[in-house]
Design goal:
The structure is a homotrimer.
Chain A (H helix, E strand, L loop, with lengths): L6 H28 L3 H6 L1 E9 L2 E4 H13 L3 E15 L2 E13 L10 E14 L2 E16 L4 E2 L15 H11 L2
Parallel strand pairs in A: 1-6
Antiparallel strand pairs in A: 1-2, 3-4, 4-5, 5-6
Amino acid sequence: MWTVVTVSELGSVTKLLDKQAIYEVVLRYCRGVDRLDIELVRSAYHPGAVDHHVGFEGNIDEYAAWLERVLAKLDGTMHLVGNHYVEFVDDDRAISETYVIATHWGTPSDDGLINFTGGGRYVDVMERRNGVWAIAERWAVQEWSRSDAGTVTMPRVPGARGSRDNTDPLHQVLARARRTK
Amino acid sequence: MWTVVTVSELGSVTKLLDKQAIYEVVLRYCRGVDRLDIELVRSAYHPGAVDHHVGFEGNIDEYAAWLERVLAKLDGTMHLVGNHYVEFVDDDRAISETYVIATHWGTPSDDGLINFTGGGRYVDVMERRNGVWAIAERWAVQEWSRSDAGTVTMPRVPGARGSRDNTDPLHQVLARARRTK
Amino acid sequence: MWTVVTVSELGSVTKLLDKQAIYEVVLRYCRGVDRLDIELVRSAYHPGAVDHHVGFEGNIDEYAAWLERVLAKLDGTMHLVGNHYVEFVDDDRAISETYVIATHWGTPSDDGLINFTGGGRYVDVMERRNGVWAIAERWAVQEWSRSDAGTVTMPRVPGARGSRDNTDPLHQVLARARRTK
């Protein structure tokens, strides 16, 4: 059956697809950090993109190197994001705000400098270049920080655990799915 | 190329656009509270809307006044939302449930009445009036509350900070984007 | 007005609808657990689906029975999800990763085994069978766990409270909406 789509509706759908693409850029950043996949982190940025981070200022190349050093001091991180709000400046540029709760853990577990949870927001200038949305400039805005010294523990019950290498369940499941495709 | 869109698919897409519009109503509410932008909070409600909040019952005018007084006692808040689930009652009315983790901080930092994190849900009757989705009635449902007395600190490292005025990075970036449009 | 929709755009929209359907499967799971609605939990899985959970391995029938016993020891739970990332294997199969912060509380409130917050990820093999997306296999991946012993309290201020029976505001509002439809 043929049906009528108004130009206004079509425009909205196009923007919905753009918002989803931009959301997935933010998710790839988080997955890259949490799985210690620096190349995935880089893929969330355009070449030459600028990052204003907590304790860091520089371009994506410098940021990737800095991030790798910082993450090496920790046993793991989890960057849970919500509140993804996109405002378009023009067809190929948008300001994207995303709320984040970032949990960091390390050894020893009573050290509050490596065992803490931080709340903040990613304020991103997102641009579409050659059809691909990615970060052109990012501000990691700090809101609060809470020490988890002595209270965060690794789970004691059996079951799947997150890791930063290919033994992580996500990688295992994706690899198996590709083999059985 | 012309293509065929079934009525069923088109209906689903329309609902997807509605869900996104409703999600952004919830996000504007959160941004309004966290940036201390009471007019933005109001814009998430229809005129005459009713709010059943923690420690408050009344219409949106009364709620906005109450909220402003409560927020003035705090140094900042962060309302991170997830689990946005919409059920349509008819074309222009929906029940929207959203999970929220709300972090509150204030001075002095060892006062648990102004330094706490609460978990809950927004149960909203959303209505579309004159083409605009907004809250007609809201229940802020409490689940749990955790004292953060003495554990939540402001970040000590350099970098962008959230604020409740126009110096917040979001406002700065949006203003710059509009100037360079 | 007639307009042109390219096959590529239509394909993207179809995938967007699939992602939303898969997201809502995850949300129904969370709502089912948190509202103690075991049938709703079951509806998120295909018959015979496998669950690899924290401290559990088995099929959905066994999981539902195990879950009911575990939840009975607690006064309440809240499973807030973010970072929903879907990768399609083929038209009817996808790997879905979802981040979760799960808060658990119980009596007495100083018992850290029933008062804790856990961070993790749901890694799901999602399949569409007879037009319905649901979980075929799930890994609940553990990341971190934090004791909330003695710090999580039930809210002391008046207002709507979450519950695990039909008095929960969500059920009340949904029932009222259906009556006035």
